[in-house]
Design a protein that fits this description.
Layout (H helix, E strand, L loop, with lengths): L3 H14 L8 H6 L7 H22 L5 H13 L5 H21 L6
């Protein structure tokens, strides 16, 4: 039997699993870099890094699990992940934790 509280999460997970690719306003995001001493260089560097992160995320998009989307992309929707680089960092961290858990799991006897 499924717990009633679990049923509340189903529509959210389904929505996020089918969610469109996140749209982050890179120019606006990188405008915050204007406080740097060399504001033009900092802004250009930010735009380049975000463009690279967006392209990498787009390449991964079809292979992301519903869990990765719900946690990492959901963070962007909630505003806690503010950039494509943040989303990729979340995905990388999630995958690294999964690898560590798999290594720590007891092996079944053969």
């Amino acid at each position: 039997m499924i717990a009633p509280a679990s049923l509340l999460a189903v529509p959210v997970l389904l929505t996020l699993a089918a969610a469109p690719f996140p749209a982050i306003d890179v120019p606006k995001l990188c405008a915050g870099e204007q406080v740097a001493v060399d504001a033009d260089r900092a802004s250009a560097s930010c735009r380049r890094q975000e463009t690279e992160a967006r392209d990498r995320l787009r390449a991964l998009w079809g292979r992301l699990s519903a869990a990765e989307r719900s946690v990492c992309v959901g963070d962007a929707e909630l505003g806690t992940a503010r950039s494509y680089a943040d989303i990729l960092g979340c995905i990388d961290t999630s995958r690294e934790l999964d690898r560590e858990k798999a290594l720590e799991a007891p092996k079944a006897p053969r």
